[in-house]
Amino acid sequence: MANLLWLQGGACSGNTMSFLNAEEPSACDLVTDFGINVLWHPSLGIELGENLQKLLRDCVSGAIPLDIFVFEGTVVTAPNGTGMWNRFAGRPMQDWVSDLSKAAQFVVAIGDCATWGGIPATAPNPSESKGLQFLKRAKGGYLGDAFVAKSGLPVINVPGCPAHPDWITQIVVAVATGRAGDIGLDEFQRPKTFFQSFTQTGCTRNMHFAYKVSATEFGQRKGCLFYDLGCRGPMTHSPCNRILWNRQSSKTRAGMPCMGCTEPEFPFFDLAPGTVFKTQTVMGVPKELPLGVDKKGYIALTSAAKNAAPRWAEQDIFVV
Ligand code: SF4
Ligand code: SF4
Questions:
Q1: What is the DSSP track for the chain?
Q2: What is the tens place of the pLDDT at every residue in 81-102?
Q3: Region for residue 153 given its phi and psi (left: phi exceeds 0; alpha: psi -120 to 50; beta: otherwise)
Q4: Substitution site in 198, 203, 240, 288 for ligand 1 pocket (most atoms within 8 Å of beta carbon)
Q5: Which residue from 104, 107, 100, 136 is spatially nearest to 119, judged by alpha carbons?
Q6: In angstroms, what is the span from residue 14 Cα to ligand 1's centroid?
Q7: Is the CB of 234 under 6 A from ligand 1?
């Protein structure tokens, strides 16, 4: 039996919605098949008021052993570091986050807001939001660079806006069943099993990427979304085309560019007008190239690819 507590800071509840839609395993499977005891969750918990405060205090004191502390949303520290803009159960949420993180065996940040700050931490960041252990790409965040939970692991980051349902439940199960050591974390503390490959891995438009055939509108059934529509699939670490959404599709399969939501900088360019769904170029060359490709190599590769493109690459071949 592993006790799990889930709290929510500056959030839209998107990751809770995602969690409740999980299929492999489902949220119910966590309880019935994997022995996870959900102590409290914002959408599922029944305790209120003093009862909830007592439960949280018992987790902090150790009277109730806290195995997994899951946090969704940013840590709101405004105004002036007090956290008073986000009070919960009688005190600033940030104080509960500090105490519960110290008490837990494992701390898991779910979604971009909890991992790196996400949209709320975008400049000018009026809520002074931070991720649990990162603020965008900078390590530290709210808990600080040196934080490790009782297990010895830092915060396990499961990013996404929202995170895919099954990324959430599979990581929770791995931790609850004693396999946390097998997860392996990358430099941003993301589980490598999900975040070592790219959104582009498994994309049905890869042939069009290779021949530099571009889609020019959302939903087109041919063409790659990188050249004009700002797709970040070649530089975003996610399994979105390996572990499909709703078990059947992904953004790029549906003709919608990947926006890079699993990377610390999301949303890119601070959402400045003209930067979303538009490939930023200098002299016709994208400012950001596929990870590991240099400018010279890109120019050589794409000019050869365009010349070599077969006629079918321009036809509607239903890559959705
Ligand atoms: S649509 Fe995006 S992910 Fe798919 S091949 Fe093109 S750049 Fe890569
Ligand atoms: S396709 Fe890209 S933007 Fe969409 S969920 Fe996956 S990583 Fe995020």
A1: -EEEEEEE-B--SHHHHHHHT--TT-HHHHHHTT-EEEEE-TTT----HHHHHHHHHHHHHTSS---EEEEESBEE-TTTT--TTSEETTEEHHHHHHHHHHH-SEEEEESHHHHT-TTTTSTT-TT-EE-SSEETTEE-TTT-TT---TTS--PEEE--TT--HHHHHHHHHHHHTT-HHHH-B-TTS-BHHHHSSBTTTT-TTHHHHHTT-B--STT-SSSBSSTTT---GGG-B--TTTS-BTTTB-TGGGT-----TTSTTPSGGGG-TT-TTS--EETTEESSPSTT--HHHHHHHHHHHHHH--GGGGS-----
A2: 999 999 999 999 999 999 999 9
A3: beta
A4: 203
A5: 136
A6: 25
A7: yes
203: CA distance to ligand 2 center in Å? 12
**Pairing mode, strands 87-88 and 129-130:** unpaired
Tens-digit pLDDT profile for residues 116-154: 999 999 999 999 999 999 999 999 999 999 999 999 999
Residue 293, pLDDT score: 94
